[in-house]
Structures are given as C-alpha cells and as structure tokens.
Amino acid sequence: VAAPTGQLKASRYFIALALILVALYSLVFFTGDKKAHPKLGLDLQGGTSVTLSATTNGKAPDKDRLERARQIIASRVDTSGVSEPEVVTEGDRNIVVNVAGKTNEDDMRKLVAPAELRFRKVLGSTPDTGGTAPSPSPSASASPSGAAPSAGAAPGSNPSASAAPAPSGSAAPAASGSATPAPSASASAAAIPPSLEKQRAAVIAKLGPAYELAKQIQSPDQVNPQMLPLFKPFSTLTGDEVAALPADIQYNVPEISCKQLNARTPGAISDPKQPVIACGSEGGAAAKYKLDVAKVVGEDVKDAGFTNEPTQGWVVNLSFKNQDKWTNLTKEAYGTGDQQAERRVAIVLDNQVLSAPTIQAVITGDAQIFGQFTRAQVQTLSQQLKFGALPVAFKMDSFENVSPTLGLEQMKMGLLAGFIGLGLVVLYCLFYYRALGLVVILSLLVSGALIYASLVLLGRTNGYTLSLAGIAGFIVAIGITADSFVVFFERLKDEVKDGRTVRSAIPRAWVRARRTILSADTVSFLAAAVLYFLAIGAVKGFAFTLGLSTLIDVIVVFLFTHPLVATLARWSAFTSPRVSGLGNARADHVIAASQAANRFGAVRTKES
Amino acid sequence: MPIFGRLYRGETNIDFIGHRKRWYLASVVIILVCLGSIIFRGFNFGIEFAGGVQMQVPAKPGVSLQDVRSAVEAQGVTVVSAQTAGSGGNQKYVIRTPVLKEEQRSAAANAVAQAAKVPRDAINSSEVSSSWGSSVTNKALLALAVFLVVVGAYIWIRFEQKMAIAGLAALAHDLLLTAGVYSLVGFEVTPGTVIGLLTILGFSLYDTVVVFDKVDENGRGLLGGSRYTYGESANLAVNQTLMRSINTSLIGLLPVAGLLFVGAGLLGVGTLKDLALVLFVGMLTGAYSSLFLATPWLVDLKLMDQRYKLHTQRVLAKRAAVAKAADGGAAEAKAGGRAKAGDADLESALAASSAPRVGARPTGAKSSQPRKRSGGGKRR
C-alpha cells in the first residue's frame, strides 16, 4: 500500500525546508560581514591572476617546499600593498596568485619573478633603530650611488642534493652586533634610469629640507639624537619611495627603518652592479647593512646542504660552480686578515640579508657556514642558497589580467545567459507541463535561494569565489535540476495514464522517480567531484557549482517539489486535466477504458 | 495520431532495438569520419596550447582592427591572429601573438592602448606558456580516467556490469563524436573546451542512467515469465523514457543555448563561449547515444548471456504457439518459427511487430498490464 501523503506529512517537509532556509539566511545576515553577496572571482570584478608552476623535472615538488614557496610569495605580495591578495597552492605543483581590482601589470610580474641570490661584501652595518635611538656604532664611509629597481628574473637553481664536504675555508657568522669600519666602495654612480630619476625627484620634493640635510651626513653615527626630529619625514616614506633614494641615504638616515627597506619591491636591489642597502638580523636584532656590488650570484652556487659537525654543530655546506669568483670574493673580504676590518660577506635574498658570515680565510674550495644554528635554520638556509628565495624553482604558466570593466561586463553577460536559460526552461515547462510548470518555477526559485545563500556562506568561510566558469556551472545545472522534476512528472503521467487519479498516482510515481533521481544525481555529482579534485584552473569553479547544484537539487526535490505536488493534488482544480497537464492522458484513458471496459475496472482508479 | 501527441503521452513505439544494426552502421560511419578528421585534420588549438599572448581591447568607433594590428606589428612583434569579437557595445578586438619577452610585451601593450585610444589598464591580457594548455589537458585526462572508473563501478554496483560497459561505451562514443565535430568544423580547442567535454560525461551518463533505470525495472522478473524478450522489454523502456529523454535533452540544451547566445554572440570570446559550444555539441550527441546506442548495446551484451538467449527463444516460441492456437495471423507464426531456427534470426524476431506498444492497450494480456514495472503493484 502506498504511503499516504497527508497534510501533516507534506507540512513536515515544508517546515524542514523552511528551517534550512532560515538557518542559512540567518547565517548570511547575522554572521561575518553580514553582506549578502557572494565573493566574486577576478574574471567578474577585474584583477590579475598568475599561475606559477614548479619546474622540477616533471616530478611534483614535496608538499612542504611548495607550501614554503607559497608563504614566501604570499609575503612578497603582502608587502607590495595590493588589496586582498590571495595566494594559494593548486594541485601538486602550482601556486596561484590572485589580486583583485586595478593592478599594475608590470608590478605583478615582478612580484612573482623569482628573486635572485647575491653574495655581497659587507661594507658596514648599523643597528636598525627605526629612529628611536641614536646609533651607537662606528661606521663606514659613504659611497654615493643609486639603487636602481629592476626585475631580475631568472630561475637560478639546480636540484640534486648532496652535502658537500667542506675541507678548506669556513665562514662563520658574526654573532655580535658590533660594526667595524670598512673600506669604502668605489663611487661608481651607475647611470640612473630616467624613471627612477623622476621617482627620486618626487621623493626629494616630498622630503623637503630633510633631504638636503641627509645628503650631508656621511655615516649613521654622525646623527645625534637632537637631529632626529629633522629626519622625521623619512619615516613616512613607503618602501618604493625609500628604494628611489640613493643608497647612502638609505643607510645613513636612522629614521629609515628596516621595515621600510624590507617593503621595497622584490628585485629592487637585485642588480649585481649596484651597491645596496639591506637588512638582516645580527645577534637577534635587526641591522642595516651597507653592501658592495655582488661579485658572486645565485647561479654560481653549485650545491648547498647541511650536516652536523662534532665541533660546530649544524653547519651549511656550500659549493660553487665558479670557484674563482668565490675565491676572489673571499680574498677581497679577508683582505690582510686584520681582525679590526669588516671581513664579512652577506648572503642577500630578495631584499634581505640572510646571513653575514665573517670570512675566516681565503676560501679556495667549498665553504662552510657555522654558528649556533638549529637544524631548522640550516635546513632553511641551505635550501635558500640552493633554490634562491623559493625552495622550488617556478615558471609562469599563465598570466591573466581582466580589467574591471570587462569583469563587470562578463558578470552581466553571465547573468544574462542565466536569465535567458532560465526563461527558456520556464517557458518550456509551462508549455509542456502547464500547472506543473508552476511547480518547476517555484522549485527553481527555492533552489536558487538555497544556492545563493550557500555561495555567500562559502565565500565567507571557505573563500570560495564565484567565477564566470562557476556561473556557467549553475546555468548548466538548471538543466539537471529541472530534469529531476521531469523524471517525477513523467512518472506521474505514466501512473495517471494507467488510470490512477492524480492523487493516488503521486505516491507511486514518487517512490519510483526518487530512485531514478538519486541514481542520476549520483552520477552527475561524481562527475563534478572528480573534476573538482583533479582538475585545475577554471574547471574547479565550474565543477564546484555543478556539484553544489546537484546536492541542492536533491534537497529541493525531496523537501519541496514532491510535497508541493502532493499538496496541490488535494486541490481539485489542480487535478483537472486542463490545468495539470495530466489531462490528455486521462481523457485518453477514458477512451481506452470504454474500448476495453472489462480490463480497466474500477480497481484502477483507486489506490492499489 | 500525430507524433507529438504520441510523444506527449509516451505512446511512441519506435523500434530502437530491432533496428539497432542501422544505428550501429550509421555510428560506425560517423565515427570513422570523426577519427579520420582527428587524425588527418587535427584540431585548431587555442593559444593556451601553443603558448602566447592574447590582448583584448574594447573597439572604439573610428579605430579599425587593422590600426591595432599594424600598431603591434610596428613594434616588431608577430601577430598570430587579429579578430573582432562580440557585437554592439561589447565589440572588441582580440590580438594574439607568440610568447613575448618582457620589453616586447610591454611595448606591444602600449602600442595597442595607443592605437585603440584606450587607457593601458583597459586592455585585458592573458599570457600562457605553451605547457599551460597541456597541463590542463593532462589533468583533465586524469580526471577522465578516474571518473570512468568511479562511475563504471557505481553503475556496476547500482545496476550491473553489462550496463556499466554499455553506458561507458556510449560515453566514449559521445566524446569521440564531439571531438570529431570540433576537428571537422575547426572550432577552437581551449582548456575551456576540455572542461566542457568532461561535463558532457556527467550529462551523457545521466541520461543513460535514467533509461537504464527503466530497463532494469522492466527487466526484473523477466526471466521468470515468458511474455517478453529482453530486447522487447528494453525497447519498451526506451520508448517509455523517450519523452523524458527528449525533455531532459531539451531542458539541458535550453540553458546552454542561452550561454551560447551570450558567449558566442555577445561576448564572442572566452570561457562562456568555449564551454557553451562544447556542451551544446556534446549534449546533442549524448541524447542520440543514450537512445540509439547505449540500450541496443546493452541488449546485445545481454543476449551473449545464455540464459537471456534461451529466454528470448522460449518467449518467441511460446508466442508463435499461442498465435497458432488462436489462429492469429500467419506473420507472427512465421516470426516465431524463425526464431526457433536459430540465433541468426533473433534480431528479425526482435524486430517483429509483436513487441508491446507503450501506452497502447495490451492485446494479449489478461490479469496485469504489460507495462513497465510489470507486477509492480502486486509486489507492494
């Protein structure tokens, strides 16, 4: 006996659905930012999306490395000051950088350009006071020159790890914060690019008299505490503005902090031909270093590894491809071996000094860096030496820039396509199913309401963004959703054709349609799930919305469409042939019944 | 009765199974053409596969495509293609070049902006390395393989092994046919196309599953009785779900048509167009294959099973006997007699007009209606 679809039962489903809707929408309106619109993808609001792919000989890099690379890129993007950057790993080897809104295309390219490793002789160092305290240390002399920002972009890396034994020289990091006088670098003021000159002029104008004053300072220790307020304007500069200043000013003015120096565009100091200023940590405190031109670069590194030595603990072993260059650099730094001299070589990555070990001898073979390192420290350092800033080498796989105008247009077009599609489906359903078509419309509305709330919530909690491909997924899903109704209604028609009344046909049709709907939805959900987990790029957004719609379709059919049809069936006007669209079949049945009266008895028109 | 009326009432009696050799032949020819085209003509791959730069710039009045093109070429940059896309206020020029060096790209973008009289940031550019498209495709192929295994397993568990085989074979047919159409017409293949192609998988199988669901239902207890052969009951299922299949395909196609109109007509370039086009082609082939191929294949597979083969022979023999006894027409007797003669005649017997008609009142039945879910009412 078919289950009775009584008033009570139908209302139970409606209540369940209403509870779900209320719960979802109260989450939408009363939690988070309370804004009822989904997070839009870059292709809908405009922005830049860059996909970086690890180049590791076809093999996927290990997860830790990829994650570390992601963090490094993310911190670079963050310091560049763009709004709401998003840096995520995708699949097993991609990193996707998404920046919304208006962006400078060239800046974006620089951001993701792999930074280069530089070995620079230390000319001087001074603690980073950020202008809060007078600088206590002795100093180095100045060397006027311009630090030209430029985009060095070459993936400098060679995989294959094996710690090289370091027999000869060794470099020890200086643990003390003391700086020593150093020979001044040659005043080779390399030609300043015109764009930088313009930038510098703007910054100088902004600084006013403070700049003239700063120019007269030869070293940070010449600045006494009373002078500090005069340099105040320097502390308001952005990273890029600081980068436009001559290197000696960056170094000499205590008001220019390491925070500002670190905020320079990545690559700002990558030009090996320029002396530069960079920050690092010395004895746990931030320090500014004045650095010579880079005589050894990342590409010269052959390999880097780490070992635990009985006497020194954890050490980093370093070998070079161009041994001569390295030997010459250490010779220059070591000089006469004078203990008083600055005998250090700084290892510079991006805008920062990783380590500035003291050169203990002219190194003619592999180098060893030691100090009181932990295992994690030597691991990081050796990887940085080996791969540059990123523990994995990357190449840019795709770069997509959508202007906000086009984004808006695509958004409009996507919605338009949705409305056209929806309109066509609604018209067809009304034409074909008549009053049942109304049920389709209502069901689609409920489905739309559920989907919308889910989108807003997913955007808020999981960072899901709606892309153009996602909209396409929803539009395609209209078909799948509407089809569940088709399955149910066709069953209903079959049952009515068999001679049942609409009311008695519903429970029977439902039991069977339910089975089919679940099977079909399972297949379509599986397709979406497989696509979502395995595919990359726009596929993900598409698959996600498709899968989400399929799930919501099940909810709507079970909690809304079926109970609604059951409720409507009690209303006699609805069951009349002309309205329900089930009429032709019944009329046909009457004819058939009259033709074969014996076989179609009264039994048929009752519930069996 | 007009065909629409019969369709509407689900009373068609198209012999899908009986004439299956016809569909097979047609499909073999089409598939061969497609394969030939794929092998000899190949595909028209988008820049995502070759690698390169694509710049999209709004078309302002008074600026011709040629202006923009020559501006780029004046920078010493090769232009692979320059075309106008979209219509009306959304019209834009699309310029494609090979992969460029940093300075070249920048110069080309500036030249485009200048020639098109728009600010630099109104240009939408995308740049892909040549490996991007293939990495998307490789991922897609992996997804395809996993999907086939998972769904094959699902249908196997949910229905049976033979349905899984027939369903997946129909799917392969759809993919090949869609790929063939792309190759023949020369539509551009982009990662969006590949994505769309994967979605067709879901849709095509979805349709097939619904038909199989009905076949499965009709086939239950079939071996116990001797009223219908498996082929007849399957044909009945296809006819019963015919309107639903058409509805499904139509309702699936309508939104895609909307997408296609907007994507290809108004926007002219991009994800929407790529997706919509492949979906449109794929859904059409999917509708064809689930009606004309999947179920017939299933019947062929089933008839390899000795039990079903014997059952079919028994049914036809009995039918012939009844017909003879009732003196019910020479044609049917002949059909039954031939069926007894051997396997070779099975097909023609299946095609015989004794197959039940959906919706039409049964002629020989006594107690229960010879329709889908035979005996369903009694079991409950």
Tell me what the structure shows:
The complex is a heterodimer of chains A (about 600) and B (about 375). Chain A has helices spanning about 5-30, 40-45, 65-80, 105-110, 195-205, 210-215, 240-245, 245-250, 260, 325-335, 375-385, 405-435, 435-460, 470-495, 500-535, 540-570, 570-575, 575-580, 585-595, and strands at about 45-55, 85-90, 95-100, 115-125, 170-175, 275-280, 285-295, 300-310, 315-320, 345-350, 350-355, 355-360, 365-370, 395-400. Chain A has about 600 residues and is of the alpha+beta class. In chain A, helix 12 packs parallel to helix 14, helix 13 crosses helix 16 (about 540-570) and helix 14 packs antiparallel against helix 15 (about 500-535). The termini of chain A are close together. Mean pLDDT of chain A is about 75; it is low at about 1-10, about 135-170, about 170-190 and about 585-608. Chain B has about 375 residues and is of the alpha+beta class. In chain B, about 65% of the residues lie in helices and about 5% in strands. Chain B has 15 helices and 6 strands. Chain B has helices at about 5-10, 20-40, 45-50, 65-75, 100-115, 130-160, 160-185, 190-220, 230-240, 240-265, 270-305, 305-325, 330-340, 345-350, 375-380; strands at about 45, 50-60, 80-85, 90-95, 125-130, 190. In chain B, the strands form 2 sheets. In chain B, strands 3-4-2-5 form a 4-stranded antiparallel β-sheet. In chain B, a hairpin with a 6-residue loop joins strand 3 (about 80-85) and strand 4 (about 90-95). The radius of gyration of chain B is 28 Å and the shape is elongated. The two termini of chain B are about 35 Å apart. The relative contact order of chain B is 0.13. At the A-B interface, helix 4, strand 14, helix 12, helix 14 and helix 15 of A face helix 5, strand 5, helix 6, helix 8 and helix 10 of B.
